[in-house]
From TrEMBL:
Catalyzes the formation of putrescine from agmatine. Pfam families: Arginase (PF00491). Belongs to the arginase family. Agmatinase subfamily. This is Agmatinase. NCBIfam families: agmatinase (TIGR01230). The gene is speB. Mn(2+) binds at residues 112, 135, 137, 139, 216, 218. The lineage of its organism: Bacteria, Bacillati, Bacillota, Bacilli, Bacillales. It is an enzyme of class 3 (hydrolase).
Length: 290
């Protein structure tokens, strides 16, 4: 799909009709080829769009409306089913195109491996890039059962690309012992269990730097987000996650892109998770793009 083509499916509420006057390109990465537990996140982007019709365009948190940050919903990237490497290559090319046009990429997953090619594209444009990562899981494995392309590996991959000292993970409550040990030895920041307070302590250190924000919906407790592939008890509340997004928005960091991944509608029978995701995306749109 080219950016000058209209997306023929459902669009996120408030989307502009064309990309030319948009500051933000919202796009889907419908891939779940490498998940190790429950698949289904490839259907996340479209369901988030569908439920967004019930969302207000005004944010009382930020006192802004969606028309103040013009964005274009470009639809889902057409990815070849089952071909992980080609899918990742297509995502990277797609984000390259967004960045070449001087626009802000806001992605919807899909499994978390889809963030890896986005990180690569962002790093090419911003060599002093930092990553803010909110997740239940470390995602620091080098491979999963012999496969290096896995949704358990994207943060280890980006740490190798930009340096572990430039990766900041929050809300982590699950991972192999070796992953935690590697992060400590490598000088990577990991905040276990909590997000908001440790995030507030880190943000001043990132003042003025280009930052990419990646949020796995399973950072939320399953009570708040049951519709995901790898639920993990003991997570944060949706209120804390919203407050964390607002903390980033109100800081002096320069957010240059973001994504929200791992919404799996098949396990989300009341649309609770998809509705939460649509609200989070609204706040990211209104908060991260000045």
């Amino acid at each position: 799909m080219r950016f000058d083509e209209a997306y023929s499916g459902k669009v996120f509420i408030g989307s502009h009709p064309t990309w030319e006057d948009a500051k933000v390109i919202l796009y889907g990465m419908p891939m779940d080829w490498t998940v190790s537990y429950r698949p289904g996140s490839r259907f996340g982007p479209n369901r988030i769009r569908e439920v967004s019709i019930g969302l207000e365009e005004y944010s009382p948190y930020l006192d802004r409306e969606l028309h103040e940050v013009p964005f274009f919903d470009a639809g889902d990237i057409p990815l070849p089913f089952g071909n992980a490497q080609k899918s990742l290559d297509l995502i990277e090319e797609y984000v390259d195109s967004i960045l070449e046009k001087g626009k802000f990429p806001l992605g919807m997953g899909g499994e978390h491996l889809v963030s890896w090619p986005v990180f690569r594209a962002m790093y090419k444009k911003y060599p002093d890039l930092a990553i803010i990562h909110m997740d239940a899981h470390t995602d620091l494995r080098e491979e999963y059962e012999g496969e290096p392309l896995s949704h358990s590996t994207p943060i280890r991959k980006v740490a190798g690309l930009i340096g572990p000292e430039n990766v900041f993970s929050f809300g982590i409550r699950s991972g192999m012992k070796e992953e935690f040990e590697w992060a400590k030895e490598a000088g990577m920041h990991i905040s276990k269990f909590e997000v908001l307070e440790p995030l507030k302590q880190v943000l001043p250190k990132l003042k003025g730097r280009p930052v990419y924000v990646t949020i796995d919906i399973d950072v939320l407790d399953p009570a708040h987000a049951p519709g995901t592939g790898t639920v993990d008890a003991g997570g944060i509340t949706s209120k804390e996650l919203l407050a964390s997004i607002h903390a980033i928005a109100g800081s002096d960091v320069k957010v240059v892109g973001a994504d929200l991944v791992e919404v799996a509608p098949v396990y989300d029978h009341s649309d609770q998770t998809a509705n939460t995701a649509s609200k989070l995306l609204r706040e990211m749109l209104l908060g991260f793009v000045k």
